[in-house]
Amino acid sequence: MDKLDVIIWLSTMGVFVVLAVVFTALLYATGGELILAVPFSFIMLFIQWYIGPWIVKFSTGAREVSEEEEPELHRMVGDLAKKAGIPKPKVCVVNNPGPNAFAFGRTQKNSYVAVHTGLMRMLNKEELKAVLAHEIGHIKHRDVFVITMAAVLPVLLYWGTIFLLSGRDRERQNPLAVWLGALFAQFIGQIAVLWLSRQREFFADAFSKKIIGDPLPLGRALVKISYSLGRYGRSENQSMKAFYIGEAEHLSEDVLRAVSGGKEEIMNAIRRERDGGILEWFSTHPKTVKRLKALFS
Q: Catalytic one among 127, 135, 236, 273?
C-alpha cells in the first residue's frame, strides 16, 4: 500500500467506526428504543443501493455502448481498470452537450463509467483519459457503497434525537421542539456526509494523478468542465450532482486561458480565485480552485 491507499483505507474504516460509535451511543442513551427504527432505515438504504444503477440509467439517459461503437473509449477504460486492478467497468454514453462524466454501480464487478457526448467533444485524449481515471478511482475506492452507508448517519441522528427528546414523560413533551431538534441533528449529519463526499473527490483526483503520472491533464479538464458549465448554464440532472466529476462554477477568463499553459500558469491564475467559503459546506464537490491546488501540490 502506498500513502494514498492507506489514507483511503483509514477514511473508509473511519466511516464505519463513526457509525458504530454513534449507533451504540444512541442505543444506550435511548434505552434500546432506537433499535426499532434501525432495521427499516437499513432496508430502505439497501433498496436504494440495489436499484441505484437502474435509476441512474433512467434519469440520465445513459446508454451502454459496445466496443464496436466506441472502441477508443473502451480501450481507455480497459487500460485504466487493468492498472487499477479492478474488473473493467461497462461503458455508457449520455447524449448531453454538458461536459461531464460519472461512475455508478453496486460493486467493482457491477460498475459503469458514463461519459457525456459534450465532454468527448471538448477534451483531448489525454484530458479525457485523466477524467476516466478519476471515475475509475471512485469505483476502486467503492465510493458509491461508502457514501450510501454514510447516509445512515443523518437517519440515525434524526431518530435518535426523536427518542432522546421525547423522553419517558410523553404528556409533558413539546412535539415542535422534538421535531426541530431532530431536524437540526439530521442537518448536522448531512453536512458530515457532504464533507465525506468532497473528500472522496479529492481521493479520486489523487488517484487519477497517480495512475496517469501527470496532474496537468485532469487539472485542465476540471477547469474546462467547470468553466463551461458555469458560463453557458447547461442544465444537469440535479439529483445526480454527487455523481458528476464537476459542477458549474464562474471561473475567470484568466483561468481558462491558463489551461493552455503549464502548472505554473494555472497556479498563478487560481491565486486570484475565491476558495468557496462556508457555501462549500453544502456542496458535494470541492471548489475547482481547491482541487487544482491539491493536484499540483
A: 135
